[in-house]
């Protein structure tokens, strides 16, 4: 039994290695915007230490949010636009939006449809930061 222990330990460590790498690129909150449900657009400014991301997502707060589009502004001034036709229930996040991580992101503009339910909520921009 003692001879099998090093082999078993090696197998367990080999199986956990990919998980350790995946955890290094977990989702981080990049910015939060407090808004009412009638607002049609939001602007998120990205801190420079989190500017290189491989994907972005939007997380709804206490109210449902219907996303219409996203515009990503890179540090060099170029922009990338995408349509988002997605309704997020309270507390859920959008599908991933791929981003070229070689180019730092400076701002993200999100357009949404005004909600029917009145009230305020916090909406988060989250992403996979490349270190």
Which band does the percent of strand residues land in? over 45%
- Lateral arrangement of strands in the main beta sheet: 1-8-3-6
The percent range for helix content is 10-25%
Query: Structural class, from helix and strand content?
Result: alpha+beta
Global outline: globular
The counted number of beta strands is: 8
Average residue pLDDT: 85
Sheet bearing the most strands, described?
4 strands, antiparallel
Order of helices and strands: HEEEEEEEE
Radius of gyration: 19 Å
Distance between the termini: 42 Å
Structure description:
The chain is an alpha+beta fold. The chain contains one helix and eight strands, in the order H-E-E-E-E-E-E-E-E. It has a four-stranded antiparallel beta sheet with strand order 1-8-3-6, with no helix packed on it. It has a four-stranded antiparallel beta sheet with strand order 2-7-4-5, with no helix packed on it. Mean pLDDT is 85; it is low at 5-24.
Summarize the helices and strands and which ones pair or pack.
Layout: H1 4-23, E1 27-36, E2 41-45, E3 53-59, E4 65-74, E5 79-88, E6 97-98, E7 105-113, E8 120-129
Keywords:
131 residues; globular
Give a concise summary.
The protein has one helix at 4-23, and strands spanning 27-36, 41-45, 53-59, 65-74, 79-88, 97-98, 105-113, 120-129. It is α+β, with helices and mostly antiparallel strands and 131 residues long. The longest helix has 20 residues, at 4-23.
